[in-house]
Amino acid sequence: MYFKNNGGSLWQVNELVALVVLTFFTDWITYGIIVISTITCAGIFYVILTPAPALPENIISAFGSYSAPIIYFIIFRRQNDKLHDQQLKTVRALSAAIAHEMRTPLLILSTVAHRLRKHLPPIIEGCQKAIETKIASERTKRNIMLVQDAPDSIQNTTRRTFVIIDMLLMNLKGTQSTEIAYESSLSLCIEEALKEYPFQGNEKNLVKWQRGNDFKFKGHSLMIKHVLFNLLKNALYYVKAAGKGTITVWLETGEKYNTLHFKDTGKGISAEMLPHIFDQFFTRRKYGVGIGLAFCRQVMEDLNGSIRCNSIKGEYTHFILSFPKTL
Fold first, then answer.
1. pLDDT tens digits, one per residue of 267-306
2. For 183, phi and psi rounded to 5 degrees?
3. What is 181-324's CATH number, 3.30.9.10, 3.30.420.130, 3.30.565.10, 3.40.50.300?
4. Of 21, 191, 263, 319, most Cβ neighbours within 10 A?
5. pTM for the complete prediction?
6. Domain spans of the chain?
7. CA 178 from chain center: how many Å?
8. For residues 228 and 234, what is the distance between their CA atoms, to the nearest angstrom?
């Protein structure tokens, strides 16, 4: 249209807008290939379809004026990509360092709990005999009840913290795993995730797992468990923030795709934020990092599946994970 309208100002503006917008969706090599090939094709069709083809008189000055904004936007895009990569590397390095430093004291606590479990029984037994013979008071009995649960309490706390550390590191690493992909039961994967997740207090009572419609998926079960961990963590946070709601998990089978449904009736997500929740470093939480849902999307895409979200603010948030059917 630029050629056919003799380089009219309207088509100059249209062409410039198209060339600038393209910089946001491609790298500079792809950009060059697309621009050169499309301009060449446009010129060929113009020559073929026009009885007396002639180049616009302002073509050189027009393309010259395009170069400055296009170069600016290409440089801006590259700088933005570099900033994003640097941000991700920084978060990965910092999180890995923190996780490493946390593991050592957690291992020490776990060892202490193991030793307490081994040596406490005879001590408790001696104290109980002292109480029976009135040597020790009833207050000692209450203290014994607190102490005898200490090893289990310490080990449960360290186990929960290890799961959180592993989840954080898994999110930052992306989806690279040494685990061999094989067919797994999604129901079994969900049950293992619910068993291993570090619920606190009565949180587990908020989750309603509707068994049935089990299906197989081909992939890394560890990755899917971490996807579920991320969804659980977010849902529990927003159910508590709303002061209401439950979490429901169920499966459905289909002709081409089988689906996992994960729905909570907590705070919901606003229409403005919903399109961005899977973007890296986008978060609605004050101390969030914005990597959890981006990780979930990457895992599902690596399975040739998908994850999408429907939500109404104040009512519900519904994640739908689609798994390709196995042969």
1. 999 999 999 999 877 777 665 667 789 889 988 998 899 9
2. -75, 130
3. 3.30.565.10
4. 319
5. 0.57
6. 9-87, 107-172, 181-324
7. 20
8. 10
